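hey
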């Protein structure tokens, strides 16, 4: 009888841990497609610029001071930065949309402990990576 209870406990723990995987599989595909489109657009900006167009944009970013409002405006008006922000926003929106549709279809809540852990575990590397990229550009 004790063995049967142990097996039931193990089954319950396994069901609870894998009941709802927070992200839909389509979310990952959508993020990849967004990244490919963004890379294609950025390549078009870099290849399509004659002479110092893209180099001028990168040089402009390197000399911009993020501490001033003018420097922040320079970053946000840069075509490559706009593409990067567009890709990030599109991937997040599509990821949320596909995850919401999946959770509605399966009848499971979208915001649970798994989703909270996922948000924390994804946001920390994203913030550190963003700061690292800004430091590299600023050099």
């Amino acid at each position: 009888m004790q063995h049967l209870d142990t097996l039931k406990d193990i089954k319950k723990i396994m069901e609870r841990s894998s009941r709802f995987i927070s992200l839909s599989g389509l979310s990952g595909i959508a993020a990849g497609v967004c990244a490919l489109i963004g890379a294609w657009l950025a390549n078009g900006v870099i290849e399509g610029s004659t002479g110092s167009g893209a180099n001028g944009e990168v040089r402009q970013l390197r000399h911009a001071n993020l501490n001033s409002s003018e420097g922040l405006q320079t970053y946000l008006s840069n075509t490559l930065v706009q593409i990067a922000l567009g890709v990030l926003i599109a991937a997040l929106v599509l990821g949320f949309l596909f995850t919401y549709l999946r959770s509605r279809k399966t009848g499971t809540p979208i915001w649970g402990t798994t989703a909270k852990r996922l948000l924390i575990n994804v946001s920390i590397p994203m913030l550190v990576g963003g700061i690292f990229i800004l430091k590299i550009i600023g050099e």
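Residues 79-106 form the longest helix (28 residues). Residues 22 and 112 are 9 Å apart (CA to CA).
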